[in-house]
């Protein structure tokens, strides 16, 4: 049972966008997926509450900011959305369960500076160094051809953590989220470019985890 933790202590970088769409992908593949949320804002939980009943099911993982329980038995895939300021024992608890950690990161110098200590902490984790936990970075709201993307790559190079891909700044995510939907809940032709940008992320997530 793969557990994917989406984490970045910086707020407003796209954690919930990444979490909900990843859960939507797993659901589209027929997996029994749980979406947990230990953010006080409970963005992922609020999103699940407006998800239409005819959409592929995504279950709620009952976790709280003060206690991160193990997922219930019988779960095939888990996505955990985490809060801004994640550190200390909450981070340790999340890492104990994680098979993979996805770090959404916008390529502005302010976001990079706010995230660099967190990324170094992850890179230094024994479980990461031993290959027990994989860590990948996703550039959010960015064009891969821009100077900003180059800046992000230069920063990450020294940490030896992979940049999996870049998701563009588009209203598709905003409009779909407003209806409790993901890229995988609508006709592919409407979001073809976005689905293509997700492919390297999904390939990385699926490695050794049964897709």
UniProtKB/TrEMBL annotation:
Annotated CobQ/CobB/MinD/ParA nucleotide binding domain residues: 4-182
InterPro entries in the cross-refs: CobQ/CobB/MinD/ParA_Nub-bd_dom (IPR002586), DNA_Partitioning_ATPase (IPR050678), P-loop_NTPase (IPR027417)
Gene3D superfamilies (UniProt xref): P-loop containing nucleotide triphosphate hydrolases
Protein origin, superkingdom: Bacteria
SUPFAM superfamilies: P-loop containing nucleoside triphosphate hydrolases
Coiled-coil zones: none
PANTHER family found in the cross-reference section: COBQ_COBB_MIND_PARA NUCLEOTIDE BINDING DOMAIN-CONTAINING PROTEIN, P-LOOP CONTAINING NUCLEOSIDE TRIPHOSPHATE HYDROLASE
Name recorded for this polypeptide: Cobyrinic acid a,c-diamide synthase
């Amino acid at each position: 049972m793969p557990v994917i933790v989406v984490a970045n202590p910086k707020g407003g970088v796209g954690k919930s966008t990444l979490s909900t769409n990843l859960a939507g992908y797993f659901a589209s593949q027929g997996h029994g997926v749980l979406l947990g949320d230990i953010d006080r804002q409970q963005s992922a939980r609020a999103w699940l509450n407006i998800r239409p009943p005819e959409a592929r099911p995504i279950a709620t993982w009952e976790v709280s900011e003060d206690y991160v329980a193990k997922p219930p038995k019988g779960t095939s895939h888990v996505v955990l959305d985490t809060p801004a300021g994640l550190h200390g024992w909450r981070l340790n608890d999340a890492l104990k369960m994680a098979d993979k950690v996805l770090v959404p990161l916008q390529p502005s110098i302010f976001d990079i500076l706010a995230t660099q200590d967190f990324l170094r902490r992850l890179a230094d984790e024994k479980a990461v160094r031993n290959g027990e936990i994989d860590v990948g970075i996703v550039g959010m709201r960015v064009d891969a051809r821009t100077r900003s993307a180059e800046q992000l790559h230069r920063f990450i190079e020294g940490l030896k953590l992979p940049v999996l891909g870049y998701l563009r700044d588009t209203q598709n995510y905003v409009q779909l989220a407003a209806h409790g939907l993901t890229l995988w809940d609508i006709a592919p032709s409407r979001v073809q470019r976005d689905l293509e940008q997700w492919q390297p992320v999904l390939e990385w997530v699926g490695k050794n985890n049964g897709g």
